[in-house]
Amino acid sequence: MKLDAPVTGGPCWAELGTTDLEAAQRFYTRLFGWRPERDPRQEAGGYTVAHLGDAAVAALAPLYQPSQPVAWNVSFAVTDADGTARAVTEAGGTVLLGPMDVFDVGRFAVAADPAGAVFQLWQAGTFPGAGLFNVPGSLGWVELYTRDPDQAVAFYARVFGWTVAPSDRYTQWGVGGADFGGMVTMDAKFPPEVPAHWLPYFAVADVDATTAVVQRLGDVLMVPTSVPDGPRIAVLRDPQGAMFGVYRAGDEG
C-alpha cells in the first residue's frame, strides 16, 4: 500500500479472533517472526499484541462471543468513532458492537457494510495503530470481497470518503489517492455460504517459501500467483480456519 503509517480513513490494524490463542501464536511467530506480548490485565481477556522489533504490527485474541467467527479483522482509523458509527447506519450498514473505550488506548466499534462484510473502527487514544507497514511480517494491503461492488463503492465512499480507482480488472481504494486496498467481486466461483468479507495481506520476503510452510500446517486457498503488472500473492488459511493473504514485499503499489 502507499500508506506507511496510520492515517484517518486508512487501515491501521489487523486483529485475529481465534479458538486457540496459543496455537495461533506459534503458527504466526513461525510464519512472520512475530514476538507476541500478552496484555496481563484480566479485563484484557488474553489480548496479545504481535511485534516486529519494538513495533506493534497486529493482534491475536480469543473469541469473545459464541457467534464470533474465527477470522482476521481489519480496523480503519477514524477521528470520531461515534460519528462514524452513525454514518455507517445512515449509509445502510450495521453497528455490531460499541462504540466503546478500550482503557486509554482508544475507542472502537465493530460494524458491517450493507452486504455483511465486517470491519472495525478505531479512534486512537494512546495507541494509533500498527507501527510498521509494507515490510515482511507487517500489514501491506486489505481487500474487500463482495457480491455487490456498486453498493460497496457507494457505502465506503460515503462513510470514509475513500477515493476509488476503478478498472475492468480490479478496483482500488485510497485515501486522497494513496491506494491501500482493493475490491474483488465474488462470482460463481465462490460458494454461496462464503460471506462478504475483508481480507488482510501481510508482506513476506518470499511468497512461495511462506506458502510451503502453510502447506504443512494450514491450508492453501490460492497458490502463489504473479498478478499481471502487480505483486506475487497467495491466499492462505491458518490451522484454526482464519484466512489471510501474503504478497512479496517490494511489490506493493
TrEMBL record:
One family name in Pfam for this protein: Glyoxalase
Highest taxon of source: Bacteria
Record domain VOC: where: 10-124, 138-249
CDD domains in UniProt: SgaA_N_like
Annotated PANTHER family: GB|AAF24581.1, GLYOXALASE-RELATED
Protein name: Hydroxylase
Organism of origin: Streptomyces djakartensis
